[in-house]
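Example 9 (inverse folding). The structure is encoded as follows.
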């Protein structure tokens, strides 16, 4: 997709991982059901008491069902303007109904939201929840992978389920941290332009990083919100390392943009396609997952029993998908010609897809 965004918002996001908002991301499971997926620290949402898994009932006195039916849900939270207030009613996981008025302000999205070392049959497995490909990400990733390297992790789970993409050089850096010595100096991505701009074609290669791992495989958690640079990492690693996808099919954006300032806006036209070292890059429908699994909204992110993470751990331990995942895969195969169930993440484009936050 090509898109136009405000320059101030673009600079804040890519330079500081910041946006003006309430401070949470959401999952719209049906036209009438919105659940809170992640709440960012030190935000109006966290101060109001919103938590992962809570269900939104109403926005400014209008029910989510009514807003969805009228097609107004996308703009229900109002403009991305500091000082703008929204009244939200929600149901907690414990069933309590709460109502609070929140006022938008600058919110920082932690680029590495969580790093953990988990146990699989007595062996250490690394878990990284990575949120944004922006300038602060490089330092945050270095710190996270240094911790995992020191712990001697033997496998890696990379959580990209809410990561809409961002800077390509950060994707190259992350791929290098994962690939280690097996990918060093190999082609990470090749940019291909049309016949009028072939002089701009170029390759980016994996590098050698002090914090890099040398894990034999990686499991990546994805959803329809996983796009662009998230998919570059998947595609770039695939020729060199076994990559297993858990969750839901990714967004499907094997193209990239250049940015052009225009007054107080930035224009991002689609400018090139990206392919990996094997010349593969035709994933406009997204990457299908190996082990389908729902987003476990009733558990905190990083909890070993959260559905997606539990499925990844099961795969690493047993070398196959869980019975629950296999049953869903078989069911989806039988219904291959039926329309996909509602998934609002697929309808998001441009800057909204990138930050995936309110």
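The amino acid assigned to each position is listed next.
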């Amino acid at each position: 997709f090509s898109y136009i965004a405000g320059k101030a918002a673009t600079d804040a996001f890519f330079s500081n991982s910041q946006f003006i908002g309430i401070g949470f991301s959401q999952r719209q499971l049906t036209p009438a059901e919105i659940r809170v997926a992640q709440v960012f620290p030190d935000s109006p949402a966290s101060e109001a008491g919103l938590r992962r898994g809570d269900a939104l009932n109403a926005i400014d006195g209008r029910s989510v069902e009514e807003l969805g039916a009228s097609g107004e849900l996308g703009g229900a939270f109002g403009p991305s303007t500091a000082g703008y207030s929204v009244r939200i009613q929600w149901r907690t996981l414990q069933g309590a109904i709460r109502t609070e008025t929140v006022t938008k302000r600058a919110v920082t999205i932690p680029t590495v939201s969580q790093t953990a070392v988990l146990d699989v049959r007595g062996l250490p497995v690394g878990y990284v929840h990575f949120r944004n490909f922006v300038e602060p990400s490089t330092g945050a990733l270095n710190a996270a992978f240094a911790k995992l390297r020191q712990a001697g992790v033997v496998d890696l789970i990379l959580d990209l389920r809410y990561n809409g993409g961002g800077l390509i050089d950060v994707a190259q850096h992350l791929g290098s941290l994962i690939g280690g010595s097996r990918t060093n100096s190999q082609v990470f991505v090749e940019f291909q332009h049309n016949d009028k701009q072939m002089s701009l074609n170029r390759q980016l290669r994996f590098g050698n990083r002090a914090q890099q791992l040398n894990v034999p495989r990686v499991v990546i958690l994805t959803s329809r919100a996983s796009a662009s640079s998230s998919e570059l990492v998947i595609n770039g690693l695939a020729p060199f390392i076994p990559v297993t996808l858990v969750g839901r099919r990714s967004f499907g954006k094997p193209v990239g943009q250049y940015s052009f300032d225009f007054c107080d806006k930035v224009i991002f036209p689609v400018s090139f396609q990206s392919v990996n070292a094997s010349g593969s890059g035709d994933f406009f429908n997204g990457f299908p997952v190996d082990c389908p699994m729902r987003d476990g909204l009733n558990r905190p992110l990083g909890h070993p029993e959260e559905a997606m993470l539990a499925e990844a751990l099961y795969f690493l331990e047993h070398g196959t998908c869980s019975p629950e995942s296999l049953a869903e895969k078989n069911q989806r195969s039988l219904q291959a010609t039926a329309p996909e169930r509602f998934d609002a993440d697929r309808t998001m484009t441009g800057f909204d897809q990138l930050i995936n936050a309110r």
